[in-house]
Amino acid sequence: MNQKARLDTIIHFLNEHQNISVDEACKLLDASPATVRRDFKLLSANGEVEKNWGGISRKIDYPSDMKPLTYRSTHFIEEKKAIARKASDLVQDGEVVMIDGGTTTLELSKILAHKKIRIITNSLLIVNNIHIERNGWEGAEVFLTGGFLYPDSGMLVGPEANKNLMGYHADWAFLSAGGINESGLTNSNQLVVETERTMIEQAEKTIVLADYSKIGIKSMCQVCGFDKIDRLVTNDKLEDEHFALLQANGLDEQNIILV
Q1: How far apart are CA 105 and CA 129, in angstroms?
Q2: Buried b (16+ CB within 10 A) or exposed e, 222-248
Q3: Is the predicted pLDDT of residue 239 greater than 90, yes or no?
């Protein structure tokens, strides 16, 4: 395989998998580590990829502070599905649920679509999931907020979305997270944060769905303190220091649900 063919193969692989290591590339290209490193160096010099520990990754330039959902949905997908399954057990028929847009809540919507509940959401993708999953009038009823459609996210945000949310009352608010640190729940976009705060105020209980990679991370905007979080559903892969952080801020075995 000549160099151009190798470079094209690497770029094609990165478009599908985001990262590639030297060992993976050696097997993919049937080439030596020295050849692969030269190819990596050339792609990096051309600005087509970014170097990382042990390999390279696809270079993505985001114009906003919130990465597209298509990018975020490829990370920790099995962990997110497990969290969604566990969180769905909290919801009983007849209840009203608010669901924030996000990759883990997107997985949750696929399960809740089959329950006899009412769902209020600001996510077009969640609405589409429910529409596909449910059988006609069987399953969840759906109420969609209006508002500004945020690019690459499928989320409706802004004053109109918040105004509409304030007209509802819910038993549960299920929120995604950009990060959770000693200050509480954080996220990366101010418009999204404002909508999440409104959901918190309009619901009896707030449930945060966050895979273990979010614990100990602080995103740009503060959503709420730990006093507003009734349950945290996360993975059992928490580092001891992160579990201690949660406990020090009032979350214990009764409010942390591990899967």
Answers
A1: 11
A2: ebbebebbbbbbbbeebeeebbebbee
A3: no
Looking at the structure, tell me whether residues 85 and 150 fall in a common domain. Answer: yes
**Overall pTM surpassing 0.70 (yes/no):** yes
Return the SS3 of 147.
coil
CA distance 39 to 90: 51
Domain that holds residue 49: 3-58
User: Cα 79 to the chain's mean position, in Å?
Assistant: 11
Neighbours of 22 (CB within 10 A): 15
- The torsion defined by the Cα of 221, 224, 230 and 232, in degrees rounded to 10, comes to 20
Q: Is residue 64 part of a domain?
A: no
Ranges 44-53, 92-101, 246-255: which has the least confidence? 44-53
Produce one character per residue of 109-124: b if its CB has 16 or more CB atoms within 10 Å, e if not.
bbbbbebebbbbbbbe
